[in-house]
Amino acid sequence: MPQLTVALDMMGGDYGPPVTVPAAAQALSLLPHLKLILFGLEPELSAWLNRCKLLHHPRVSVCFTSQVVTNEQKPTHALRYGANSSMRKALDALASGEAAACVSAGNTGALMAMAIRVLNTVPGVDRPALITRLPQARGGYALLLDVGANISCDATTLARFGVMGEQAARHVLGISSPRISLLNVGAEASKGSDAIRQAGQLLAAIPNLNYTGFIEGDGLFAGRADVIVCDGFVGNVALKTSEGVARMLLGLGERRGLLWKMLRFWIKRRLSHLNPDQYNGASLIGLRGSVVKSHGSAGSPAFLNAILQAVAEIEHELPASIAHRFDTAPMDSHAR
Amino acid sequence: MPQLTVALDMMGGDYGPPVTVPAAAQALSLLPHLKLILFGLEPELSAWLNRCKLLHHPRVSVCFTSQVVTNEQKPTHALRYGANSSMRKALDALASGEAAACVSAGNTGALMAMAIRVLNTVPGVDRPALITRLPQARGGYALLLDVGANISCDATTLARFGVMGEQAARHVLGISSPRISLLNVGAEASKGSDAIRQAGQLLAAIPNLNYTGFIEGDGLFAGRADVIVCDGFVGNVALKTSEGVARMLLGLGERRGLLWKMLRFWIKRRLSHLNPDQYNGASLIGLRGSVVKSHGSAGSPAFLNAILQAVAEIEHELPASIAHRFDTAPMDSHAR
After folding, report:
1. What residues have CB less than 8 Å from A62, skipping those under 6 apart?
2. CATH no. for residue B226?
3. Pick from B230, B259, B278: which residue ends a domain?
4. pTM of the entire predicted model
5. Which of A151, A185, A248 sits opposite B151 (nearest CB)?
6. Do B249 and A267 touch (CB under 8 A)?
7. Cβ contact (<8 Å) for A190 and B72?
8. Considering the domain boundaries, does residue A151 fall inside one?
9. Quick one: A248 and A135 in the same domain?
10. Which of A310, B29, B93, B213 qualifies as a cystine partner to B98, CB 3.0-4.6 A?
11. How many whole angstroms separate alpha carbon A330 and alpha carbon A14?
12. Domain identity same for B64 and B114
């Protein structure tokens, strides 16, 4: 098996090295063909590398940085002053070809801005999108994008997300002709904002794209679509609302007894992909490289999932396939 | 107990009289002080009134109309050509004082447009909002608005929703100083759209209003806020997404056996207020009258709930209290 190299921002998220280093160690032991380049602040990172016996690991190279991007930082500020941050350096390694994918649990806005600056988008794509999986009632998954990278989107951007999502569904879900839909407040053509109605017309006009129309929030889990497109604000609220319902159900209080235990176990399993502690890793797609955004509150198992997802994306060659799709069927003609 | 009169649009929703007439009959038998004015098309409505023995009921007056507003109709079209529709006539009865509240399961956009035209908003309110209850993890409810009446909202409108929601929480939930929050993609002040950030500043500047900042989607059910404000697109998606997760969990397939039965029963109860077949009735607030929008897919029990909610709103005198709040603490000074 050919070696794969992933660059990790070890400082991102709510915890940093205490979470990211054990996850890195586990990934290395799971995947013998995986190489890691780790970026972070000297004292804290090296202490944890030492504790997890990664300081002199043959498949690990460490690059100490002098800065960290905080969650409070504005993307513009991180862009201007974060050149030596662990997040930026990890993206640089991806851009230079040292690494084939990058994982960070840091500030989404900053990651998005830096990734555009450092990697650039594929030709024909103006904005990358953050995409994630949603479990479906009868099993399997649908893809939802954007879940938070773009607060507001015009019709053309939404339509491009549809095309990017189509490629992701082909390569990640293995669906040859994925059903693409737009998230709206009603199924009727007259419903929703101008941008969404126009995006529907753009998607319907794209040859060989299986656009199936509008879908409402209660359709996100109903198995009626393989790709669901919306702007980042709506997608983020929808995803986190699902997590909220999941948590409400898991909050069975301190009920004891076998039935409650079984119930909690069953719901946990059923909701595992809505539970950020278990499902994890949304991908920034539309870039010239694979960037995986781990949940900020991710624990070690969740950060490990994000690393495994990055490896899978390298193997799926998603960036190349998206570039190819836009190269062969440019959208701008439809966008005007 | 003083008599209360409610006007019912009998033709709205996916089913019409087969659902609305039995619900009306049940409401009359539950509430001896309730009077109903029923609006609908002659043949269908009278057939069902006959079947449910309401044709000559002492507390029922029937008004046959010549038109119905369909779900596909655009609000502007309904406004211009729907003067003799059951929806419009029911609102007219509210405006003339014949009825103290109005219930319809019809086209939300049309109901909103007609209600503004016929009833007008209270002074200081430019747009009515559709408000509903959300169950909270540790019991009790929060109020979410707008859930679909206004696709997009500027900062001032969002701030006004906060003030209207405060009054609703006082009168409907009985909370003296409700915690008001804005739904956003992050808790940090830098997150979200300009409109939401500005709305946060407006709400923080309102005297005697308990504004507690931004809340994310996973906080909708966490008991951290009593009133959650967002635009109608986001609120509609959030509400329907919750319903979708609920349905996914209720879709336990055809599993048999006592455990699964208990499980299904327990989840059904836990999720009853996310299940449109059981919870029902969102209110249009900010108008000079009580208008309750029943879920379009509502069955008889759900439509009955909407009628009971209308009765409760008459007793709470919500429109008057909202008018009083805007009269004593006008918002426009903050809005500029």
Report:
1. A37, A38, A45, A46, A49, A54, A55
2. 3.40.718.10
3. B278
4. 0.89
5. A185
6. yes
7. yes
8. yes
9. yes
10. B93
11. 40
12. yes
Share the mean pLDDT of chain B: 89
| Residue of B240, B262, B265, B272 to mutate when probing chain A, most A C-beta within 10 A | B240
Instruction: Name beta bridge partners: B60.
Output: B36
Residues A242 and A135 in one domain: yes
The residue among B246 and B15 whose pLDDT is bigger is B15
Same domain, yes or no, for A265 and A308? Answer: no
Q: What are the tens digits of pLDDT across the range B96-110?
A: 999 999 999 999 889
| DSSP designation for A121 | B
Task: Render pLDDT for B46-68 as a digit per residue (tens, 0 to 9).
Answer: 999 999 999 999 999 999 999 99
Output A272 or B231, whichever has higher pLDDT: B231
**Residue A325 domain-assigned (yes or no):** no
| A142 Rama sector, left if φ>0, alpha if ψ -120 to 50, beta otherwise | beta
Residue B336 forms part of a structural domain: no
**Residue at A67 is within a domain:** yes
Q: Is the dihedral of CA A199, A201, A202, A203 positive or negative?
A: positive
Give me the number of domains chain A comprises: 2
Domain ranges, residue A265: 126-278
Among A134, A152, A240, most B C-beta atoms within 10 A, so best to mutate, is A240
Q: How far apart are CA B249 and CA A269, in angstroms?
A: 11
Note the pLDDT of residue B212.
Answer: 97
Tell me, yes or no, whether B202 and B260 share the same domain: yes
Query: What distance lies between CA B242 and its chain's CA centroid?
Result: 17
What is the least distance, in Å, from the CA of A60 to any CA of chain B?
34
Q: What angle do CA B281, B282, B284 make, to 5 degrees?
A: 130
Give the DSSP letter string of A83-107: TTBHHHHHHHHHHHTS-SEEEE-S-
Query: Do B245 and A246 lie within an 8 Å CB cutoff?
Result: yes
| Tens of pLDDT, residues B135-145 | 888 888 999 99
**What would the mean pLDDT of B218-235 be, rounded to a whole number?**
95
pLDDT given for residue A336 in this prediction? 38
B11 and B96 part of one domain: yes
Residue A248 and residue B222: Cβ atoms within 8 Å?
yes
Regarding beta strands A141-145 and A129-135, do their DSSP bridges make them parallel or antiparallel, or are they unpaired? Answer: antiparallel
Low-confidence ranges of chain A (pLDDT < 50): 253-254, 333-336
pLDDT for position A333: 46
Two tokens, residue A100: 């084939």
A149 and A261 together in one domain: yes
* Tokens linked to A134: 């949603």
**E strands, chain B, in order:** 4-9, 34-41, 60-65, 101-104, 129-135, 141-145, 180-183, 211-215, 227-229, 282-285, 290-293
pLDDT per position as a tens digit, B87-98: 999 999 999 999
Q: CB-CB: which of B137, B237, B259 is closest to A237? A: B237
Q: Are residues A72 and A175 in the same domain?
A: no
B200-220: pLDDT as tens digits: 999 999 999 999 999 999 999
Whether A216 and B237 lie within 8 Å, measured CB to CB? yes
